[in-house]
């Protein structure tokens, strides 16, 4: 699962060869380690609104090196472009082109983050045009960035301050190495709910979280990341995967629950286990999923039904049990693993894509229901991730799939886990019904 | 008072129970059992015991926990494994400060670790314990011959070259043949199967009855797997997620086609086949025991209490009783101590070393003459309700890694008892009976919580 090409082009002769031949030049991405700085270098907060001022003040409160004006030639760790008061498309010019002058000073693995408002709630067409313009701007800019730098945006519903808990939470996530493989994406903050953690290294302290499909791959990475962030874990996988599940459980000091999530009583058994053994249940990560690829013309009932059954029907049933339970009421959080196949489609995966698109649908529709209980639900859609599963893809196909994104490499299971850990934290409490893609800005279906 | 050396039931009282704490079964974990030479061929006893422990730790969240004591053992044991259980603990996710000891009582090893540790919990010496057992018939120790061993030891003691050569000259080609383990009884030279064949013939157990018992074992075990019964009792290992010996599709007709393997020279018709005898098996099992307070403090389930146990032994050497008939004597003594009859038992877990063993045991308890003269009872002990016998399968289907069988049975029985709960206003009650080499047997009573 190592990407030998990245190592080859990262230094020495390999780097020169790739440069001369115009080959992709992916870099080793900056990823979060406990204790590592949020950003490497000063942060330029671009924008002249009150929202920009208060946001810059909040960053100063975190002891960051914040600039309101660029110093030419000084390397920047991040540029935050605050565009929260756009009235007409022409309003984009000044802040955007001012920021443009600093782009060449952005350090490797730097960050561009826009903070703007949702277009759907705009009062008039001109405002909507300006707001929607940010979408195209950011997605294009993200594709222009090099050397591991990413561009992402935060969309605020009207009335949400640039310093609301989840605005700052999303900002921290995008600035940090936790968002290494998230590129060209937006997160929408719809409420002022949520709160920033007392200890930024342990945002999930005191929370009891369930991870399904935790025996290996992305599920195991989710377990490790949630454990690092302070959560107490219940790890679920099918009985036949019990040995791998036990190994992960012992690593993250959790309890292993061998359970087929497609059983009709799975939701209740998960609740019972968490409450009996850990006293509460706060978070459920629906990660378990299967693929049974076949062109639709060759599809059989078993392949179709098993994928729909495990990937979406089981989640629906478990969520019904969770929402009906008195034990899932204290700022409950659900995060589902969807897939870019469910967003953009993928040949040979009609069943899988239907199930994962189904997950996106259920997440959006469940948001108001869990919102009544003070909770949130979101989905994360991974693109090409380096796992045992993708390692089995034939070499040439795998190489192409890896490079077809803005970061020119596959993501790590931990990258998906980081996005999930963020959405499971109280800092993301004002974000719900969202689908966050962890795909390095995949060029297909973006 | 004694009858033929066997003490008469009820002649001694249990210790004042009010003084003792309860020892509860929290749960268990085992790896699927594999046929010898199968999936675990390259796994040592230590590997398998460690795997079973790690699965238990994961199930109950015991990482870095200091358990009061861990006891386990193996029947086929390498001399290097003198600290087998402690080494497995050190290789597991438990706290390194967890003490452990090895125990060996042939096939009763696993059940005896449960009883010994339960007693320590009852006495307040420890609050938590893990009992277990493991055996590998694949990775069995092979010893050098006595002749070679003596030469090697003398060689080590010889100080001069000429003396060393003198010692070496004693070596003969036959000394180089290794001494492989076998299941023969040292005092009779007969294998366990041949011993049981004598008993099976003595009690006139038919081939059909043995095959039916074997069939039920496979059917019940397969149904238990299908119902998810083992989802929280077992952790897969080395590609196995079910017992490899299980034949869900077997039938009495298929079993009837097998050729007899034991008792072929008894004159009477031979009835014991590979189908109604347990195969050589590899596997490991563990059981988590605790005081009620410890289980509560750790938010862990309490499935059943370990009420009491009893050991017995018979004089098989002189042919007075069958090699595997000791439980026939232990059970009435244990029942009498608690003023119970067979009718008061809701689940019977009688280890299926051979179908003939179980059926001979049941026949003996139904035999008035035997029960009067040998057990010192007024009449027959009674009949075991077959619908309560080994309801989720037993060793004929699961296989029998000698020392691991006790843990398999105790964990499964505790789960069944907890699910049953109350029967006629009292806790559901289960009886475990395990026969062992050397003419021994250990039995126990568990009650639902």
| Total individual domains of chain A | 2
Let me know the CATH homologous superfamily of the largest domain in chain A: NAD(P)-binding Rossmann-like Domain
What are the secondary-structure elements of chain A, in order, as H or E? HHEHEEHEHEHEEHEHEHEHEHHEHHHE
Main beta sheet strand tally, sense and closure of chain A: 7 strands, parallel
Rough outline of chain A: globular
Poorly predicted runs of chain A are none
Predict the CATH topology of the largest domain in chain A: Rossmann fold
End-to-end Cα distance of chain A, whole Å, is 25 Å
- Number of DSSP helical runs of chain B: 14
Task: Please identify the structural class of chain B as seen in this structure.
Answer: alpha+beta
β-strand amount of chain B:
15-25%
Number of strands of chain B: 16
Main beta-sheet annotation of chain B: 10 strands, mixed
CATH-scheme architecture of the largest domain in chain A: 3-Layer(aba) Sandwich
Largest interchain contact: A-B, 23 and 23 residues
| Global morphology of chain B | globular
Protein name (chain B): 3-ketoacyl-CoA thiolase
Pfam families (chain B): Thiolase_C (PF02803), Thiolase_N (PF00108)
Keywords (chain B): Acyltransferase, Transferase
GO molecular function, one term (chain B): acyltransferase activity, transferring groups other than amino-acyl groups
Structure commentary:
The complex is a heterodimer of chains A (446) and B (449). By secondary structure, chain A is an alpha/beta fold. Chain A has two domains: 31-189, 3-Layer(aba) Sandwich (Rossmann fold); 208-438, 3-Layer(aba) Sandwich (Rossmann fold). Chain A is built from 15 helices and 13 strands. Chain A has a seven-stranded parallel sheet with strand order 9-8-7-10-11-12-13, with helices on both faces. In chain A, helix 9 packs across helix 10. Chain A is globular, with a radius of gyration of 22 Å. The mean pLDDT of chain A is 91. Chain B has 449 residues and is of the alpha+beta class. Chain B has a domain at 146-176. Helices cover 33% and strands 18% of the residues of chain B. Chain A binds chain B through residues 239-243, 245-247, 249-250, 253-260, 263, 276-279, and chain B through 51, 54-55, 57-61, 63-64, 93, 228, 230-232, 234-237, 241, 299-301. Chain B: Belongs to the thiolase-like superfamily. Thiolase family. Chain B: One of its GO terms (molecular function) is acyltransferase activity, transferring groups other than amino-acyl groups. Chain B: This is 3-ketoacyl-CoA thiolase. Chain B: Residues 172-195 are annotated as: Disordered.
């Amino acid at each position: 699962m190592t990407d030998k090409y990245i190592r080859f082009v990262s230094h020495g002769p390999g780097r020169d060869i790739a440069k001369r031949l115009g080959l992709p030049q992916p870099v080793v991405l900056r990823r979060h380690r406990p204790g590592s700085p949020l950003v490497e270098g000063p942060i330029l907060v671009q924008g002249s609104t009150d929202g920009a001022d208060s946001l810059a003040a909040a960053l100063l409160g975190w002891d960051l090196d914040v600039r309101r004006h660029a110093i030419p030639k000084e390397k920047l760790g991040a540029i935050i472009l605050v565009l929260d008061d756009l009235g007409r498309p022409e309003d984009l010019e000044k802040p955007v082109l001012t920021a443009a002058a600093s782009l060449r000073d952005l350090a490797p693995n730097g960050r561009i983050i826009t903070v703007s408002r949702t277009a759907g709630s705009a009062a008039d067409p001109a405002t909507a045009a300006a707001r929607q313009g940010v979408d195209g701007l950011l997605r294009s800019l993200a594709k222009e960035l090099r050397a591991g730098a990413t561009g992402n945006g935060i969309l605020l519903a009207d009335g949400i301050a640039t310093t609301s808990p989840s605005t700052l939470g999303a900002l921290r996530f995008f600035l940090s190495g936790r968002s290494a493989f998230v590129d060209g994406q937006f997160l929408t903050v719809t409420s002022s709910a949520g709160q920033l953690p007392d200890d930024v290294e342990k945002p999930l302290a005191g929370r009891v979280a369930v991870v399904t499909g935790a025996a290996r791959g992305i599920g195991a990475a989710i377990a490790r990341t949630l454990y690092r962030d302070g959560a107490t874990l219940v790890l679920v996988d099918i009985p036949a995967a019990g040995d791998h599940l036990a190994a992960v459980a012992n690593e993250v000091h959790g309890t292993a629950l061998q359970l087929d999530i497609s059983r009709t009583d799975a939701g209740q058994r998960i609740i019972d286990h968490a409450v009996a053994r850990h006293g509460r249940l706060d978070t459920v990560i629906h990660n378990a999923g299967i693929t049974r690829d076949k062109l639709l013309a060759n599809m059989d009932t078993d392949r179709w039904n098993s994928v729909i059954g495990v990937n979406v029907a089981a989640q629906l049933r478990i969520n019904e049990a969770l929402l009906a339970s008195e034990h899932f009421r204290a700022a409950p959080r659900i995060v589902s693993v969807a897939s870019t196949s469910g967003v953009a489609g993928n040949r040979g995966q009609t069943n899988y894509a239907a199930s994962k698109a189904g997950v996106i649908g259920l997440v959006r529709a469940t948001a108001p229901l869990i919102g009544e209980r003070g909770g949130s639900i979101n989905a994360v859609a991974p693109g090409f991730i380096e796992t045992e599963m993708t390692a089995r893809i034939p070499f040439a196909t795998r190489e192409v799939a890896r490079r077809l994104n803005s970061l020119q490499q596959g993501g790590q299971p931990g990258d998906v886990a980081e996005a999930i850990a963020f959405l499971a934290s109280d800092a993301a409490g004002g974000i719900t019904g969202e689908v966050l893609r962890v795909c390095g800005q995949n060029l297909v279906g973006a | 008072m004694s009858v033929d050396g066997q003490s008469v039931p009820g002649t001694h009282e249990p210790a004042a129970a009010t003084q003792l704490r309860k020892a509860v079964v929290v749960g268990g974990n085992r790896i699927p059992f594999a046929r010898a030479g199968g999936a675990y061929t390259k796994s040592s006893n230590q590997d398998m015991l460690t795997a079973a422990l790690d699965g238990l730790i994961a199930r109950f969240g015991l990482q870095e926990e200091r358990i009061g004591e861990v006891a386990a053992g193996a029947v086929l044991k390498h001399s290097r494994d003198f600290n087998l259980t402690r080494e497995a603990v050190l290789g597991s996710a438990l706290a390194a400060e967890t003490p452990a000891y090895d125990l060996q009582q042939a096939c009763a090893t696993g059940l005896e670790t449960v009883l010994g540790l339960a007693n320590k919990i009852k006495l307040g010496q420890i609050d938590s314990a893990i009992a277990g057992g493991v055996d590998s018939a694949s990775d069995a120790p092979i010893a050098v011959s006595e002749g070679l061993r003596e030469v090697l030891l003398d060689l080590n003691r010889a100080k001069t070259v000429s003396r060393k050569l003198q010692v070496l000259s004693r070596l003969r080609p036959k000394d180089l043949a290794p001494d492989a383990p076998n299941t023969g009884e040292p005092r009779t030279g007969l294998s366990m199967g041949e011993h049981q064949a004598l008993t099976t013939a003595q009690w006139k157990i038919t081939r059909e009855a043995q095959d039916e018992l074997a069939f039920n074992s496979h059917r019940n075990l397969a149904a238990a797997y299908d119902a998810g019964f083992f989802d929280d009792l077992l952790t897969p290992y080395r590609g196995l997620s079910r017992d490899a010996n299980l034949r869900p599709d077997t039938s009495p007709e298929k079993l009837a086609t097998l050729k007899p393997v034991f008792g072929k020279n008894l004159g009477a018709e031979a009835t014991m086949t590979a189908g109604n005898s347990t195969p050589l098996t590899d596997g490991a099992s563990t059981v988590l025991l605790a005081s009620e307070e410890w289980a509560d403090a750790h938010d862990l389930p309490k499935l059943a209490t370990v009420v009491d146990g009893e050991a017995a032994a018979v004089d098989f050497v002189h042919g007075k009783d069958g090699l595997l008939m000791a439980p026939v004597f232990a059970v009435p003594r244990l029942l009498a101590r608690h003023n119970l009859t067979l009718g008061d038992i809701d689940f019977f877990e009688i280890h299926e070393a051979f179908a003939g063993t179980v059926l001979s045991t049941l026949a003996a308890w139904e035999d008035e003459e035997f029960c009067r003269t040998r057990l010192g009872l007024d009449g027959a002990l009674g009949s075991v309700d077959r619908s309560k016998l080994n309801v989720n399968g037993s060793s004929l289907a699961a296989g029998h890694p000698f020392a691991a069988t006790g843990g398999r049975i105790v964990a499964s029985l505790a789960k069944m008892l907890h699910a049953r709960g109350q029967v006629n206003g009292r806790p559901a009650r289960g009886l475990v009976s395990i026969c062992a080499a050397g003419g021994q047997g250990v039995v126990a009573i568990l009650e639902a919580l």
